[in-house]
Amino acid sequence: MLENYFPVLMFILVGLGFGLVPVILGRLVAPNRPGSEKLSPYECGFEAFEDARMKFDVRYYLIAILFILFDLEIAFLFPWATVFQEFIAAGQVAWFVFGSVMVFIAVLVIGYVVEWKNGALDWE
Amino acid sequence: MNFVVPDFYPAAAEILVAVMALVIMLASTFARRVASDLAYGLTQLTLVFAALVSVLVSPNLLAAVAAVISELPLFGVRLAEVLMSLAEGYAANEVVATFSGMFIGDMLGGLLKVFSLLAVAIALLYGRGYLADRKIDRPEYYLLSLLMSLGMMVMISANHMLSLYMGLEMMSLSLYGMVAFDRESPRATEAAMKYFVLGALASGLLLYGMSMIYGATGSLELSGIAQSIYHQAANKTVLVFGLVFIVAGVAFKLGVVPFHMWVPDVYQGAPTAVTLMISSAPKLAAFAMAMRLLVYGLFELADQWQTMLMFLSVLSIVLGNLAAIAQSNIKRMLAYSGISHMGFVLLGLLAGVVDGDRNFALNAYSSAMFYAVSYVIMSLASFGMVILLSRAGFEAETIDDFKGLNKRNSWFAALMMIVMFSMAGIPFFIGFFAKLSVLQAVVAAGYVWLAVVAVLMSVIGAFYYLRVVKVMYFEEPVDSTPIRAQGEVRFLLSANGLAIAVLGLLPQGLMSLCAYALLASL
Amino acid sequence: MTDMQKLYLLVPLAPLAGALLAGLFGKAIGRAGSHIVTILGVAVALAASVVIFQDVQAGNTFNGTVYTWMKSGNLTFEVGFLIDPLTVMMMLVVTFVSLMVHIYTIGYMHDDPGYQRFFSYISLFTFSMLMLVMSNNFLQLFFGWEAVGLVSYLLIGFWYERPTAIYANLKAFLVNRVGDFGFLLGIGLIAAYTGSLNYAEVFAKGSELAAQDMAVTGWPLITAICICLFIGAMGKSAQVPLHVWLPDSMEGPTPISALIHAATMVTAGIFMVARMSPLFELSDVALSFVLVIGATTALFMGFLGIVQNDIKRVVAYSTLSQLGYMTVALGVSAYSAAVFHLMTHAFFKALLFLGAGSVIIGMHHDQDMRNMGGLWKYMPITWITSLLGSLALIGFPFFAGFYSKDSIIEAVHASHIPGAGYALFCVLAGVFVTAFYSFRMYFLVFHGKERFGNNHGHHDHEGDHDDEEVSADHHHGLAPGQKPHESPWVVTLPLVLLAVPSVVIGFFTIEPMLFGNWFKGVIHVGSNHVGLSELAAQFHGPVAMALHGLQTAPFWLAMGGVVLAWFFYMVRPDIPAAIQRTFRPVHALLENKYFFDRFNEIVFAGGSRLIGKGLWKAGDQGIIDGVAVNGTARLVGWVAQISRLFQTGHLYQYAFAMIIGVFILLTFWFNLV
């Protein structure tokens, strides 16, 4: 029973190794000459002018959540699309299968309309 | 490819609520000026119709309701006939599973749905004036309560771990939103945050338990799980390990010790209208969840979960009653009282199987159901009274706010007295019979010590209920503002209070309805 | 539900509806509205009872459950009806007398501010009494029993501003508590040993009970049950020594004295024992007990009637004595005679009370007979009807009372159970006494010198002490020169309507009720008891019985009583005073009602106060308050404070508690797998 899990153990070990070995090697092998520029926080392109733990605009989350919602919609549609072919071949319930996804999309469209109308998509 | 088109009929009420939620969403978006009133009206209509549809799609429930109606004078018989004819042509199966076994239509579900939908409707009605006074009666509130109802209905009718979890989350997420509905209030936000984080933790525990059960039995469908355990195809160690987490998840939703910590804070922090909502219908849904998971799915493990429930219920009854005594805030007090009441519900649930003998099951579970239903009725009335005393700019929160209520309005004082007496379990109110039937089940199962503890603690518990009565009748009012409320609130609250008294005199009807629902569904 | 069953339900519910309407909406519907709805309710009940009566005559009885209230273990608590000849007879009597009293009340309570309240109460009483008689189980019987007691309590204290009324209703309540305690014990024994509260089921197990002894004590079970039940009947039907409340209950308005304390409620005990005849027949000891108590009540309460001067009190003592007769009949297994006397008595005693009430109205609420006299001229209808009632009461041949009382005396004569000799003496002597005090009252009130109007203000009762204060505030009396006048028609109509059955009902019903098949299957007489069988052999129709009655001892005893009363109070009024002087100790004994009240006050009231004080000091303050209550309260408070500490408000602690909870549950996992 337990030997079945051996690959898992190996996987963990290899994973740990991949993570740790370069860091340890770098510490051991690389030269270490710090300077003020080198120790300053890395920001891509612009100056680090305040605390990293700054407040994000709440609208950022709003957009992110809305994005995830529609992202998930697509995620649901992929598996459906793959089996839909087979349902068409079987005939019988194809319209039902098609219709149920249309209802699913319709619900999301209603949600989209509501959030648009309520101004959730306007940045200002 | 053996896909079957599902039978939508048993889920007609759920579909109605879902469609109406969308309609209300659109309507309140496009008709902003009347949005609140429109959403409120449509929500109430939807709830009442959904309750009616729930009756119509459950042939057993319909027959029981029609039997009651035909006893009424005047048009009773005719009305019953009309009702029956509405459901004609639908095969009277006792239990129907549909949506590939994800959804089950039975009388237990039907009855619980009717009660919870009506409870939501009553809670909305009581709370409307309160929300309007605080300028938070936005259409989204009604939308959320409708979605919460949908979640509850899915949960009540779940026959599958996934649909159950989906319903649970739908209900919980709506409730989190409702608790935080008063965005300006820091207390409400804090309460919502606590509720959300702890709820998420509980959901996680529950999901973990479900995955364990799935791992052991290879099925997510409750009947499949039950069969797999019955044929001893599952690893018991893993099963019971999963069971622990399932029980924890159920216990959180019921709010029993030690998963109760959110209850007092959320009850106190949330706007009273929302507290009213949380303390009523969701308790029925949580009861249904316990029934579906533990009785429908894991009945073979009854010996194990009964022991766990015993631990939870004793702690709840003891701690709930003792802690309630120390409260000066009435919402907190009622929260702790709710914890002890849920302990009593568990008492009924844990008395079903004795040494492998299942003859007690029906009696025990129906007593638990009766208790849950009566608690909801009492809870609606008690928080309804708290709402009644509050007004714009004033929250009736402490027990002192009830001082001298008899002098201000003797009718409502009498109603509150009925509610308190009933909650304390004084004969002859419904609370007495609820306690009595649960205790009988416990004694029949041979746990006399448990019954003794429960009785002792309720005697101690009677103290804090009677204190409210004492304050109302024997102390001078500090606040002499006349009590004002809309006609329908007055009427319904009176009916609610009187129902507690009348059902206390004539409890047999409701009791046998519960028993019959279980008999037809198990 | 069949139509008949709906009708059964209608009988108690119609008065209840009337009571609720008059009680809750009395202000809204006004005085006229109140009496209309209540009278309508009772009239409907009476009409329904008549229909049911015809149905029962056709042979349709009913025994079934209407509503199952709750189940506790194997015991079912139900609301059910048992409709049989006994029930339907009681229903007719109750609804008829109640209707008469309702109508009468319109006149009697005309100026009372509590008009609506009164109507509500008497309708409520009718409902309770009907529930009592229609019951098919002990629970409902007990409900009705307590409900009539409650309404009686409310009505005795109807004029609640009067301290005497409050004292009287408290007394009635407390004395009935004693009886009800016994009654409840009896029901409890039955429930414990048969596991059922349904009459039919209990009776079916009667012989089983008779074979058993009680646990622990070893007493014969059936005797214990019957005596306990009878103690209940003693309280309700005012048998010695639990009779003390009935005379005081005359503090209530006269209509209820007629309805509750003469015709119906006080006979509930008699009805109950008759209903339980299958049980009582199994215990000779209990029957003897019943017999002796009844005989004592019949004679010795009659004596007290002789010395009373308050018109209502005379009638009250006469009621006590007649209840004694009924109890005697029960004791000799002549249950149907008891019920028969119950029925005739209900009519003529209600008539006498209402007649007395009419006199009281005429006298402007003066109740002292020494201030009356010669009223026949002024109140002709009251006079005639009272005379008819009195004749019925003393058992004058052809009158209703004759048939019932004579049957009882004959039944006692035929009986052989222990105590029958004593009982025979008591009932025979009782006939004389009854005739004497009845006609003493009759002569004092309606004949002789007109004594009213001249000694207004002088109300020397010489009676019991609690009566003294009464005279001050409600015995108004007539002013000098004022004449009494006949009461309005609402008062006299019930008198006339009641006078009819008082005269004829015995003649028409004796044959079916006593010797026919009317009570067959309802009342059970054991083969070892004589009951009425010897009487039945000698019975040759009501006319023959009455003619034969003219030659028997009871008739001449009654005549002797009448003549003596006439001689004492019409011819030589100085003799009673002389006798009173000569036999002062006897008179004092009677005046003080055999010192029952004094005895109760000193022994029971004083004793319980003493015990109460002892328990209060030592038990309550010391142990219960000190240790149990305050100790527990402190403990509870302490635990409550501790549990409050856990509720810190910190989210992470809450989550931590949940995790701990899961871990504790996991320990179950270790143990349970």
UniProtKB/TrEMBL annotation, chain A:
Q: Name one GO cellular component term.
A: plasma membrane
Instruction: Please list the reactions this protein catalyses.
Output: a quinone + NADH + 5 H(+)(in) = a quinol + NAD(+) + 4 H(+)(out)
Q: Which keywords label this protein?
A: Cell membrane, Membrane, NAD, Quinone, Translocase, Transmembrane, Transmembrane helix, Transport, Ubiquinone
Q: Identify the enzyme class.
A: translocase
Q: How does it sit in the membrane?
A: Multi-pass membrane protein
> Which InterPro entries does this chain map to?
NAD(P)H_OxRDtase_bac/plastid, NADH_UbQ/plastoQ_OxRdtase_su3, NDAH_ubi_oxred_su3_sf
Coiled-coil spans in chain: none
EC number(s) stated in the UniProt entry for this protein: 7.1.1.-
According to its UniProt entry, the function of this protein is described as:
NDH-1 shuttles electrons from NADH, via FMN and iron-sulfur (Fe-S) centers, to quinones in the respiratory chain. The immediate electron acceptor for the enzyme in this species is believed to be ubiquinone. Couples the redox reaction to proton translocation (for every two electrons transferred, four hydrogen ions are translocated across the cytoplasmic membrane), and thus conserves the redox energy in a proton gradient.
Q: Which PANTHER family match?
A: NADH-UBIQUINONE OXIDOREDUCTASE CHAIN 3
The name of this protein is NADH-quinone oxidoreductase subunit A
Source species: Aromatoleum tolulyticum
UniProtKB/TrEMBL annotation, chain B:
The compartments listed are:
Cell membrane; Endomembrane system; Membrane
Can you tell me where the transmembrane regions are? 15-35, 47-69, 110-129, 141-158, 193-217, 237-263, 308-326, 333-354, 369-390, 411-434, 446-466, 498-519
Q: Where is the NADH:quinone oxidoreductase/Mrp antiporter transmembrane domain?
A: 158-461
Instruction: Write out the GO biological process terms.
Output: ATP synthesis coupled electron transport
| Entry keyword set | Cell membrane, Membrane, NAD, Quinone, Translocase, Transmembrane, Transmembrane helix, Transport, Ubiquinone
- Quick one: where is this thing mainly located? membrane
Q: What does this protein do?
A: NDH-1 shuttles electrons from NADH, via FMN and iron-sulfur (Fe-S) centers, to quinones in the respiratory chain. The immediate electron acceptor for the enzyme in this species is believed to be ubiquinone. Couples the redox reaction to proton translocation (for every two electrons transferred, four hydrogen ions are translocated across the cytoplasmic membrane), and thus conserves the redox energy in a proton gradient.
HAMAP family from the xrefs? NDH1_NuoN_1
Please state what the protein is called: NADH-quinone oxidoreductase subunit N
Organism the protein comes from: Aromatoleum tolulyticum
Q: What gene is this protein translated from?
A: nuoN
TrEMBL record, chain C:
Which Pfam families does this chain map to? Proton_antipo_M (PF00361), Proton_antipo_N (PF00662)
**Record-annotated membrane-spanning stretches:** 6-25, 32-53, 86-106, 141-160, 172-194, 214-235, 256-274, 286-307, 314-340, 346-363, 375-400, 420-439, 489-510, 553-571, 651-670
Q: Which GO terms describe its molecular function?
A: NADH dehydrogenase (ubiquinone) activity; NADH dehydrogenase activity
GO CC, any one term: membrane
Cellular localization per UniProt: Endomembrane system; Membrane
Q: Which residues form a coiled coil?
A: none
Q: Which UniProt keywords apply?
A: Membrane, Transmembrane, Transmembrane helix
The protein's topology relative to the membrane is: Multi-pass membrane protein
InterPro entries, from UniProt? NADHpl_OxRdtase_5_subgr, ND/Mrp_TM, NU5C-like, Proton_antipo_N
Write out the ranges of the annotated region (Disordered): 456-484
The alphabetized list of GO BP terms reads:
ATP synthesis coupled electron transport; electron transport coupled proton transport
User: Which residue ranges does the record assign to the NADH-Ubiquinone oxidoreductase (complex I) chain 5 N-terminal domain?
Assistant: 69-119
NADH:quinone oxidoreductase/Mrp antiporter transmembrane domain location: 135-417
Q: Which domain of life is it from?
A: Bacteria
- What protein name does the entry list? NADH dehydrogenase subunit L
